[in-house]
Amino acid sequence: MTIPLAHYLIFSGILFSIGLAGVLIRKNILVVFMCLEMMLSAANISLVAFSRAQGTNGIPVYDAQVLSLFIVAIAAAEVSIGLALIVAMFRATRSVDSTSLNTLKD
Amino acid sequence: MFESAICQIIFYVFAVLAIACAVGVIAFRNPVASAMNMALCFGFTAAVLFGMGAQFMGIVQLIVYAGAILVLFLFVVMMLDVKEEERFCKLPLFIGLMVASVFAGMVVYVSINLPGVQDITCPFARLCDNIGALAVTDTPAATACVQAPSALGGYLPELNSTAANLAANPGMTPESAAAATGYPDVKLLGKTLFTQYNIAFVILSFALLAGTVGAVALARKIRKD
Q1: What is the residue range of B203's domain?
Q2: Looking at chain B, which runs of residues are DSSP E strands?
């Protein structure tokens, strides 16, 4: 037999949680951003798994795959903006440390 | 039987490898090592997508994530010449890991308890095993069969290339659909994308254009004069 849907969902959930842990504990803002990308791709896996599970007659529901295609495209746009912001931040503070952005604090 | 056992083993192998590489992303202090681990993680994720029969999404995952996004990351890491971190964590490590673990446990709990997931003899799974043969011999019966209520979950159905070929090419007879090999994944996805979601697709291209212009506007050097 093939693999149950639950295993795909657990895989995607674990990948998402690892990304969440990275966003919470890492200080380097580049790695935080990489972990955000990982969370997006984990969401993609569960969307594609749902599209396979809900299909009729063995044909997947392609609406879910179109949605995950949109997520990929938005992720690409988001990465270009975010990395430009990181470069601008590095120019301003000479650091990519997320704890160095404390001008408003002190 | 043998083939599906191989498929199963391949899924678990790639899933474990992807999770290991994801742990590598947050465990390495050097950002270049993190980026390389992320490339591997995306590659293994693409392999899992291929195994699910979503070939186009797997290719997109490889081209966009492992190709474009990763190269952008490596470019910025090399350009900024990032040093290894002295102090690793912004939160205490314990709190961050605890929050993430609680979240993971919640997701696993919900996934296991979805209705129908525990039910091995889910009607959905058994329907799709014989539906290919039925679609050739008796199309109305096959159509009636698949309109039975399907529970969410259970085993993922086998890909039915006969029925998919019939859906993609309305003029095709069931016999020629059965004779045609291959699964028209890209064709069906494109059909959905360019008919039902055409306006969203055009709006998305504007979002990408805005992203490009915004990146250039943000990253350029501002002259003082």
Answers
A1: 185-225
A2: none
Q: Copy the structure tokens of residue B106.
A: 């919640």
Give the pLDDT confidence score for residue B157 in this predicted structure: 58
Closest-CA distance of chain B to residue A56, Å: 6
What pLDDT does residue A92 have?
86
Same domain assignment for residues B82 and B142: no
**Complex confidence, ipTM:** 0.92
Across B45-55, average pLDDT: 87
In whole angstroms, what is the distance from residue B2 CA to residue B17 CA?
23
Instruction: State how many domains chain B has.
Output: 4
Name the nearest CA neighbour of A41 among B93, B199, B60, B7: B60
Cβ-Cβ contacts under 8 Å, B2 against chain A: none
Residue A102 CB-density burial (10 A; 0-12 exposed, 13-18 middle, 19+ buried): exposed
